[in-house]
Structure formats: structure tokens, C-alpha cells
Amino acid sequence: MIKRKVIIDCDPGIDDALAILLALKSNKLDVQGITIVSGNVPACQGAKNVLKILNLLNRLDIPVYIGEEYPLVRELVTAEDTHGKDGLGETFLPDISNTNIFYNAVDFIIKTIKKGDKISIIALGPLTNLAKAIKKDAFTLNKVEEIISMGGSFKSHGNCSPVAEFNYWVDPHAAKYVYDNINSPITMVNLDVTREIILTPNYIELLSQFNTSLSKFIVDITKFYVDFHWRQERTLGCVINDPLAVAYFIDNSICSGFYSHIDIVTDGIAMGQSIVDVANFYGYKSNSYVLNKVDNHKFMEYFFTCLFPEFKEDINLIL
Ligand code: RIB
Ligand code: CA
User: Fold this and answer.
1) 159 CB less than 6 Å from ligand 1?
2) C-alpha 95 – ligand 2 centre gap (Å)
3) Atom of ligand 1 nearest to the CA of 159
4) Is residue 39 within 8 Å of residue 13, measured between CB atoms?
5) Tens digit of each residue's pLDDT (9 = 90 or more) over 170-195
6) Residue 56's CB: how many other CB atoms inside 10 A?
7) Cα–Cα nearest to 241, from 131, 166, 163, 172
8) Which atom of ligand 1 is closest in space to residue 15's alpha carbon?
9) CA nearest ligand 1 atom 1, residue
């Protein structure tokens, strides 16, 4: 089975952490590198967090590159209220010291795509790194096999304003630039589908019963996130957006959607909103594949059996 080559661009972040765990445990992806962008936490903290995640899986062989610290135009607004001061639910795990963290994520993205292999990008944070890479070398970036972006919304309400989703709200200029300048359609894994993916108390108790270092890590980092969801949205459990982007990349049957032109609002009351021209009002060429249906059970089955293959029977009993 040939593994698909990917770069994971992220802002870890609790759900980013779950997405990275899924990507690595799936054995379906050849992760060329992990690039970090400021979003949930500043990029330098995100890089420290990725090392903790890689160390847990004994995968410190995967290179980590720090990218853009600030959005293209806006001031940086981070989300420690959601992900904790350390970005991993205030678990304050010890830093991994004996490992190189590299800089220049944008150059790494360009250089990796230039190698000529089929490379895809799974973007789980604001699109600042991608926008900068396109600005620097659009010809190369348009050779990317596939881009999956967790971000935006179609009909679902926003999580940063009534209409804006965090990744596209933090850097709306970058999101607009990427959608306006990448030739192939970008799959938008948006809130309409990710809001269906909730790690409920039932699932969290299942993880506790597994009682492994991996399951304990997930329970520990999601506690803070669950409290935030109850406080903010009266959701019992936590929405895990980013793992759905990875799962969909691996198995497209988990979600379905439609092609559409989308534009991103860059200022004013609707800043960060993804405008989905579903009725093709403007007659523009579609630049996005907008997901609007998800098989929640299929996702959860994949998520749990992939992370905990040793508990496959128990998982099938409960799911
Ligand atoms: O709006 C949710 C997205 O913003 C997720 O990727 C989360 O990690 C944050 O980056
Ligand atoms: Ca993220």
C-alpha cells in the first residue's frame, strides 16, 4: 500500500493534536513534515506542542518547521481560552529538548513540493503559511496534488462571530489569497460537518477504560476543551474539528459535498466569513469542494480503531 505524501500545516491546539495522532497511527500517510502557524497559540508554542505529540508516538524523526508568527494583515488573536495557556489543555507537559525545530516553514513547503513527488497539504490552522508560499512561488504551489483545509462554514453559525470560523477569522486575507490563487479546488472541511464530530463523555469514558499512555494523553488534553465547550456552547463533550480533515483525506467516503466558488470576507462585521456561492450567482469557476454531509459513526469507528487497534472488539461493542 503506497502511503500518500503529505505536509500537515497546523496550530496545535488540542484538536490539531488529535489530528496528528490520527495521521501518524493511520499508517496511510507519509508525513514529510509538520509546519506550524500561529493560531490557537503562537507558532513557537505550537512547535513545542508538536514535539510532545511526536515524542508520545516515538516519531521525533518527523521534521517540524516553525512558520508565520503573524497573520498577513490582522493583529494575531490566539485561543488560549479554548485550548489552554500551553495549547494542550494546560497539561503543561515537559518540553522535548533534544530535538531540532527548524524555521522557514514556507521554504520547506516549496522545497518539498519542488521535489516532484505527489504532495498534498492538510491545513488545520489559519492559512498564513500557505498564502506566503503561494506569494513566493505560485508555480510550485499549483503542483500540489490536493489541499484539504479545516475552516469556514456553509450554513452553520461561526465560532468567532455569528458567521466566522476561527482559522479563516484569524487570517482572512490569507484564506482569501489561497482560495483566489490555487488552481485546483480546495476541500473545505468546515463547521457544517465538524460540528457533528463530538467527543462525548461516553467516548471519553471509553478512552479512560483503555488506560494506555495514548488514551490518557487524549483524556488529559481534552478536559480543558470539554469545560470550554460547556461554558461557551452548552455542548457536552468537545467538537474535534481537525481529525475529520485527516480522516476525510484518508477515506473520502466519510463526507460528501459540492463544488462551489467561495470567497472570504476580509473586513467589517462579517470578517472571516466564507461566502459559499452555492447557487452560482456570480458564475465564477468553483475553487472549493464544500463538505456538507458527514457519516459520524464511520468517522468515530475509524478514529477509535485507528488509534486503538488493540481494543477493536470493545470499540465495536460500544460504537
Ligand atoms: O475553528 C476550529 C479550528 O480553529 C480548528 O482547527 C482549531 O484547532 C482552530 O485552529
Ligand atoms: Ca487547528
Assistant:
1) yes
2) 20
3) 1
4) yes
5) 999 999 999 999 998 899 999 999 99
6) 18
7) 166
8) 8
9) 166
Q: What is the pLDDT of residues 109-164, one digit of tens each?
A: 999 999 988 999 999 999 999 999 999 999 999 999 999 999 999 999 999 999 99
Which residue's C-alpha cell is 478536559?
Answer: 223
At 166, the pLDDT band (50, 70, 90 cuts) reads very high
Average pLDDT value for the chain:
97
> What are phi and psi for residue 187, nearest 5 degrees?
-80, 120
Q: Going by DSSP bridges, is the β-strand pair 64-66/29-36 parallel, antiparallel, or unpaired?
A: parallel
272 upstream amide cis, omega within 30 of 0: no
CA atoms lying within 13 Å on the CB side of residue 260: 19
Supply 128's cell numbers: 498564513
| Sequence-separated (6 or more) residues with CB below 8 Å from residue 63 | 33, 34, 100, 102, 108
Q: Is 33 in the pocket of ligand 1 (CB under 6 A)?
A: no
Q: Kindly report whether the peptide bond that precedes residue 13 is cis, defined as omega within 30 degrees of 0.
A: yes
Q: Is 82 in the pocket of ligand 1 (CB under 6 A)?
A: no
Q: What's the CA-to-centroid distance between 149 and ligand 1, angstroms?
A: 10
